[in-house]
Amino acid sequence: MRTAGVIVGVLVVLSVVVGVNVYVARRLLQWSTLVFPGINPTVFVVVYVVLAASFLVGYAPLPVPVRRTAAWIGGHWTGVFVYLLMFFVVAEVVVAAGRLVKIVPTPVPVGVRFGAGLVVVLSVAGLAAYGVFNAHRVTHVSYDVQLDEALPSSMTIVLVSDLHLGSVGSERNLARVVEEINRLEPDLVCLAGDIFNDDYRAIRDPDAVGRSLSSIRSTYGVYAALGNHDSGMPGATTFDEMVDLLERSDIRVLKDEYETIDDRIVLVGRLDWSPIGNTNGLARQDTASFMSTVDTDLPVVVMDHNPATIGQYGAETDLILAGHTHRGQMFPANLITGAMYAVDYGYYRKDADSPQVVVTSGAGTWAIPMRIGSRSEVVSITLH
Fold it and tell me: Domain 140-383 sits in which CATH superfamily?
């Protein structure tokens, strides 16, 4: 019965995916024939299928150069597709409303169909160009956090999450992120997961990445927790290589572990609760049991990648640093993350007995190398 349910679910998803692609392809072809009357429908369909399939090819067990090229094409096309779908639907609704109030004649004139399609195509092209530009523009966001137990002197933590090294443009983006981190002259740097994008081998130049990470300057060092993508893809065996690259770059990876920082705070790094791939036997401990072993004589700061877990912590925890959500990365996905999480971005505290939480939208992108309605950011948090 359970297997049958899974099969039905997969078929429903496939039907929806195929259906929306057929809809977008038809609308694009109809508009394209108005612009280029001699266009060959067969060639159009072949090109469209290649574009649509390239996203999946980017995750197939194929040679790295093939997957890298497919990921570049598929990532950009998927972003374009999302907005083509949205704008074509909006255009349909507007034209239908115009017909209803007798502004648009029936049947719809060719000029109206051409104009509606032109508005859609130009709007999507503009949004896609902005999304690519915005994704690689690293911004700085700052928070002041007053701990319940005041520190003898303030401490500045720089929080970075979701670099997704190995994804499109991630290695060039890393240089900008490191430059921003060093400009802030932090006491402590915390990398809160999804440092890698599933596959270590997708990184073009691991040595260059290591040099960039090693160049991060911080008074008390750089620490990392692992996210769901840091375990690699299902069946992958590159987890140890990921961790080794971090450790060779002078980054201390906390795998359900903690360290005392300058006798002022205790820093905890949690394993992610839903790793995608193989973590070589490492598994997240029960939060209550694990936290009972943590020294709470000093303020406790926890790096836990996914903010879905913040309800597992109580008064023993002072501050949680998280990422994962990307703040939706592309509108309207931010409406979904906003509904899914108690906090999908920014500062949050449920009540006086709960930890304070800071969730970053991340410094990189996943799957689609665009950001619309969110930003790539480096976060500084001043603890008092």
Answer: Metallo-dependent phosphatases (3.60.21.10)
